[in-house]
């Protein structure tokens, strides 16, 4: 259940950003989760609520933005959706030299602040 | 009243930074770390016993760190080989993280260690997500676990630089379909080497040590597709710009949008609107760069 560690990391990052922005409450956290990131969004949502308790994120909503995987073969440039479980062999040449263009994202994309927000952001640290 | 900030910040940035730092610290000491992932009961400790004994026979200085939820049995077994062994009791945490690991290595890892084996917590889900600063990641599967293991745990097998099959002495008895297994591995991780071993009859013993020593001597390990990102080759960073140049790694994940079916030559260079560039983005490529952001303080290795 590493989703708990991941939720804690999200909360920590957003709480740090809240300090930098002088925000006192968080309305929504938007998280990009790639199809191949190795994270279960439902488990993450459950852990997120727990991890927010007692922090500036208390009551914040988590919006998970799923990112589909997309691979591209180096030699023949064909692009395909590898699916789940992923098929990462090139469907055209059968070769092993693909690159994953998207699908492993695990990123805090955006935060919507709530509560008191001063007009100018606080200077860093 | 509502305002939003575009953070674009990798959730695991802190772990990844610590891992990068640890990797460079280990490299400076001539040590290669091997991260071993497996399910519980896949024969990881037996495998490791064989590798440690092989290292001792050949006079190669190695060490092992073993992570367990609660007991010290593994460490006791491994210590019998005479190799330095450190036990981490994770107290229920399902995976190792780089910051934690750095703390455990500080003051313990013997100087001159060429290979450090990291026996991760027995679990193929959580440890797969965390870089530990290893230079070789190995995922194990025993023949008793079935041929479809790589499809059930695509992150663990997809990110492996070597896949290692254990308990092959039982293959016939359990009807292990080697060809199907290899096909499944190739699907999630094309091009990865698969090594067959048996602790009971000695098949493949020492193979893992050899792979690790090759990396320690400069061989470039397999790069799984799952770990390959589309950015161009990193350009040298001008010293004056180090403070503000985002790492290649960050930007590999930085732009996600629907890909229409046309060429992508410039698709990842678009639109850098000013956004909240957290400084964790900025120093990943500078080995040993100071961590301004409160990574736990541990003694340098
Ligand atoms: Zn191709």
TrEMBL record, chain B:
Gene3D superfamilies: P-loop containing nucleotide triphosphate hydrolases
One GO molecular-function entry: zinc ion binding
Biased composition (Low complexity): 285-301
SUPFAM superfamilies: P-loop containing nucleoside triphosphate hydrolases (SSF52540)
Keyword match DNA-binding: no
A Gene Ontology BP annotation from the UniProt entry: protein maturation
Composition bias type Basic and acidic residues, residue spans: 250-284
The protein, known as: Hydrogenase accessory protein
Highest classification ranks of the organism: Bacteria, Bacillati, Actinomycetota, Actinomycetes, Kitasatosporales
Gene (name only): hypB
């Amino acid at each position: 259940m590493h989703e708990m560690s991941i939720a804690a990391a999200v909360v920590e990052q957003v709480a740090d950003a809240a300090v930098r922005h002088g925000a006192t409450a968080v309305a929504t956290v938007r998280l990009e989760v790639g199809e191949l990131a190795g994270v279960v969004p439902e488990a993450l949502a459950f852990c997120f609520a727990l991890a927010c308790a007692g922090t500036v994120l208390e009551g914040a909503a988590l919006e998970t933005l799923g990112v589909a995987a997309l691979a591209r073969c180096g030699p023949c440039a064909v692009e395909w959706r590898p699916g789940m479980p992923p098929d990462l062999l090139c469907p055209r040449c059968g070769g092993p030299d693909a690159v994953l263009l998207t699908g492993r994202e695990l990123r805090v994309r955006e935060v919507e602040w709530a509560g008191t927000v001063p007009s100018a952001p606080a200077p860093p640290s | 009243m509502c305002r939003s900030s575009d953070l674009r910040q990798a959730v695991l940035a802190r772990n990844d930074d610590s891992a990068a730092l640890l990797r460079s610290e280990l490299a400076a000491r001539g040590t290669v770390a091997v991260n071993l992932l497996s399910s519980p009961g896949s024969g990881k400790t037996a495998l490791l016993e064989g590798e440690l004994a092989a290292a001792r026979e050949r006079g190669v200085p190695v060490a092992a760190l073993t992570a367990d939820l609660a007991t010290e049995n593994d460490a006791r077994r491994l210590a019998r080989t005479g190799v330095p062994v450190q036990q981490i009791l994770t107290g229920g945490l399902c995976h190792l993280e780089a910051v934690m690991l750095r703390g455990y290595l500080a003051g313990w890892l013997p100087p001159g260690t060429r290979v450090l084996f990291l026996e991760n917590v027995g679990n193929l889900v959580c440890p797969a997500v965390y870089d530990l600063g290893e230079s070789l990641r190995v995922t194990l599967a025993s023949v008793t676990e079935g041929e479809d293991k790589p499809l059930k745990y695509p992150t663990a097998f997809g990110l492996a630089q070597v896949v290692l099959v254990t308990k092959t002495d039982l293959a016939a008895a359990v009807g292990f379909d080697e060809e199907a297994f290899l096909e499944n591995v190739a699907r999630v991780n094309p091009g990865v080497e698969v090594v067959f071993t048996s602790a009971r009859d000695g098949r493949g013993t020492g193979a893992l040590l050899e792979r690790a020593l090759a990396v320690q001597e400069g061989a470039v390990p397999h790069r799984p597709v799952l770990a390959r990102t589309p950015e161009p080759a990193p350009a040298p960073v001008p010293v004056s710009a180090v403070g503000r140049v985002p790492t290649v790694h960050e930007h590999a994940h930085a732009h996600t949008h629907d890909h229409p079916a046309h060429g992508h030559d410039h698709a990842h260079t678009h639109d850098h609107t000013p956004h909240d560039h957290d400084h964790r983005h900025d120093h990943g490529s500078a080995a040993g760069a100071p961590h301004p952001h409160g990574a736990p303080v541990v003694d340098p290795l």
